[in-house]
Amino acid sequence: MTSIGDVELRSIVTFCVALEKSPTETMKMINSTGKYKKCSPVTVYRWHARFIEEENSRMILDAVGSLLLHVQLRTR
């Protein structure tokens, strides 16, 4: 089970990924709050990498979906 702190941290990392912050900038932002001083940098880096990967996958799927729609419309 995840704690409220984990959910908040994931939200912060997701937000930083959306802002195109680096993992180092994300970690600095988390540390600056003072609330998550015990947060492991390894955890932040893993989440950061995973969220970027998910974002890239979503962008690829959107592009493929748009291409398929365009092809379907042209063949009609």
Structural notes for this entry:
The protein is mainly alpha-helical. The chain has one domain. It has three helices and no strands. The chain has helices spanning 4-18, 23-33, 41-74. The model has no long low-confidence stretch (mean pLDDT 80).
Explain briefly what this protein structure is.
With 76 residues, the protein is mostly helical.
Q: Percentage of helical residues?
A: over 70%
CA gyration radius, whole angstroms: 17 Å
**Count of separate structural domains:** 1
Number of helices: 3
The portion of residues forming beta strands comes to: under 5%
The main sheet comes to: none
Arithmetic mean pLDDT: 80
The tally of beta strands, per DSSP, is 0
Distance between the termini: 50 Å
Any descriptors?
76 residues; 0% strand; mainly alpha; 3 helices
Set out the fold topology.
Elements: H1 4-18, H2 23-33, H3 41-74
